[in-house]
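thread: overnight batch results

M.L. [08:02]
morning all. the overnight job finished for the chain we discussed friday. pasting input first so we're all looking at the same thing
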Amino acid sequence: MKKGIPGKVFSFGYWRNLFSHRKPFHYVFLRIMRIAGLGPFIKFDAGGYRLYLFPTSISADLWLLPGSRPYDMLPCIRPGNIVVDVGANIGTTVISAALRTGTGGKVYAFEAHPEIFGYLNRNTSLNGLANVSTFNVAVGDGEAPVSFSDYEEDECNRIVDDREGIPTKAGKLDDLLRDIGKIDLLKIDVEGYELFVLKGAMETLKRTGCVNVEISEQHFVKYGYHAKDVFDFIWKSGFKCFRLFDDRRCEEVSKDTCNLSGYYNIIAVRDIHYIDSLVHVSKQEGPEMEKST
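M.L. [08:03]
and the structure it wrote out:
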């Protein structure tokens, strides 16, 4: 990834953050390790599992506040489940899911960025997970190689049109998971490319119980579609869609409420009982749902 300018590390913003931070020592140590390039040699407890202190925003967040980035769907994952993570990043969701499924389950992780993919592999190995398979592939609706961005803000990397990105192998879930049977949970978080991932997974969705997708109209329009297109595709695939709120409420999304702006997660299920252990589910009409945003 493209790294920031070391000279900016001790800017005014740095000192302001230092004096206001609840863990100033950890904050200083993080900056020093980043400048020295020693972070990848540091192991730490991220809250139930271990990570290397790689130069990524997720690593930094969990170094400063272990356990601060839990996966919302984790309570739904049971021993023996099969989980697929598209857009796995450094592996926090992958590791949490793998620990939850146990040796009888399996997690398939897909990460397009080659450097982040290396971090993913090291983190899963650090936790001794034999039930994880990783793939350095940009998942979409085709097999032609794509260009993947190399932004310093690692969570924002995505498929791009220009030639400045990293040439990356691409593939469809229908091909990549052809030999996999029933899938209990499919998570998709690919910075706006979600619809193309779904289009390349038409057969995969038929044997999937639950789909967790990040919705972002701001990201979708970069690829020429809208949130409504994602919902329409999922509905036609036989799922009901629910929006997951921060307070763990879960409300069904209708055609009247599927164009809400902002960032939020949806859960698509065939059987509503799948998410009983996660939240209380209620159904509201459009105007009421908009008030809760």
